[in-house]
Amino acid sequence: MDRPSPHYLWRSRWAFVLAATGSAVGLGNIWKFPYITGEYGGGAFVLLYLLCIFLIGIPLLVAEVAIGRRGRGNPMDALAHVAREGGASRHWGLLGAMAMLCGFLILCFYVVVAGWAFAYTLKMAGGSLAGSDVAAMQAIFADHNADPLQLGGWSLLVALLTLWIVGRGLQQGIERAVRWLMPGLVLLLLVLVGYAATTDGFAEGVTFLFRFDASRLNGEAFLAALGHAFFTLSLASGAIMAYGAYLPEQQSVVRTSLIVALADTAVALLAGLAIFPVIFANDMSPAAGPGLLFMSLPLAFQQMPWGQLFGALFFAMVSIAALTSAISILEGSVAWLNEQHGISRRRAAWLLGGVLVLISQLTMLSFNQGAHWTLAGMTLFDGLDYLTSRWMMPLGGILLALLVGYRLRLDLLRDELHLPRALYALWLILLRYVSPLLILLVFLHALGWLGFDPLQRWYWVAGACMALALLGECLTPGVRSLYRPAPR
Ligand code: TRP
């Protein structure tokens, strides 16, 4: 079957890596990772998170990039095309549609948090947080959120900035933006870690992040770790697949995906190293929740020499990270409107933008006028986060793993990946048995249908994986079939 030709490609070798890393590295790394790690008590959670990244995240990331490039189109078309080519139904394209919807829903609360970061950059730089204590800092955050004009204004600004960049197109908009923003982000982060290393909380911070305490391992933490692994790698939300569609033929899917995943993990750990020492040096609690970044940290910055400068730099960095992620969420849907419906990129961006602004403004109201619009105890903001991280992304992930592992011809993506045989088999085995089973356990646990905590009986999980692998290999054309000589 003919391979569709891409409309455009990344211009430089590093553009994909920068853009995909820009997508992966975002509020997830700097805002969410530290606060969840704080809530689940540090080291044990970090270990679970790393496990999820390596066993589930990276194999799926590779699959997404490979499918994007093979299908050369927006996530919906790319999936439909690859599914047909691999002998499956083209309705798998709907998985791409769900992914784009998921990305869109993420963006609706993402711009609100990004708006916080923008606002705090100004507040820190302008010195309006100076001299506050814990209570005052909480009051400032509460006041900021209570005022729909302020909160809405900042969310609107982030949304418009995102639309403007995406509307300008791949090379003029996205590629140009990430070329400056990503190196700036890394530089700022290193400066901050360097500063944190000089505080007396550094040793405590390192211990908190890396000391493994088995008693803290539990299914609840595993649920959060898995959801976060999906979130932080931007999986199952259309972004990575959309970017993969522009990856030039001669670049290695596996190598670039690995660089992206490792860079993302490194930034999360570095952010932890920048944040926890400052928290401990000031005797604050790491378990402050979503407000950790906006209540404890500004306070900590106030108390350090040059705090105003470092604080402003820190929030500028968070804003940059958020922006490069936000851009990538829209790319898939813009490309879809453009390729499927012939709408120009600019118009597509503004069309989607209209809907985005509408929903994100409603989401922003979760913190003030709309705080009482709740469903199952969750505001719109919490609900969107919960729906996407806990359900839509893992669901998209499990379906993708099943598609690649069972429905597509097993050798289809081999030309895309250029892996040695053993590694290709390992990749397939992870997608066929390990990811689906682990994600399924997470679902069952979340639904309360599992009468025990799977993590405390990890040997059960390992055994089930192996049993499933055996059964799967007997019942389906298994991974072994790849190694038989092809029938003539
Ligand atoms: N990975 C982003 C972060 O860590 C968040 C994210 C999730 C995302 N899904 C996405 C970003 C899809 C872009 C596209 O902040």
Question: What does it look like?
Answer:
This protein is mainly α. The chain has one domain (13-483): Amino acid/polyamine transporter I (Up-down Bundle). Helix content is 74%, strand content 0%. The chain has 19 helices and no strands. The chain has helices spanning 15-24, 27-39, 43-71, 75-85, 93-126, 134-146, 148-167, 170-198, 202-210, 219-232, 239-244, 253-281, 292-302, 307-341, 345-364, 380-407, 414-417, 421-447, 458-475. α3 packs across α9 and α5 (93-126) packs across α16. The radius of gyration is 22 Å and the shape is globular. The two termini are 20 Å apart. The model is unreliable at 1-6 (pLDDT under 50). The structure holds tryptophan (TRP). Tryptophan is lined by residues 23-24, 26-29, 103, 106, 231-232, 234, 237, 239, 325, 328-329. Tryptophan binds at residues 23-24, 26-29, 103, 106, 231-232, 234, 237, 239, 325, 328-329.
In terms of topology, how is this protein built?
Blueprint: H1 15-24, H2 27-39, H3 43-71, H4 75-85, H5 93-126, H6 134-146, H7 148-167, H8 170-198, H9 202-210, H10 219-232, H11 239-244, H12 253-281, H13 292-302, H14 307-341, H15 345-364, H16 380-407, H17 414-417, H18 421-447, H19 458-475
Helix pairs in contact: 1-8, 1-12, 1-14, 2-10, 2-12, 3-4, 3-9, 3-10, 3-12, 3-18, 4-5, 5-7, 5-14, 5-15, 5-16, 6-13, 7-8, 7-14, 7-15, 8-12, 8-14, 9-12, 10-16, 10-18, 12-13, 13-14, 14-15, 16-18, 18-19
The structure holds tryptophan.
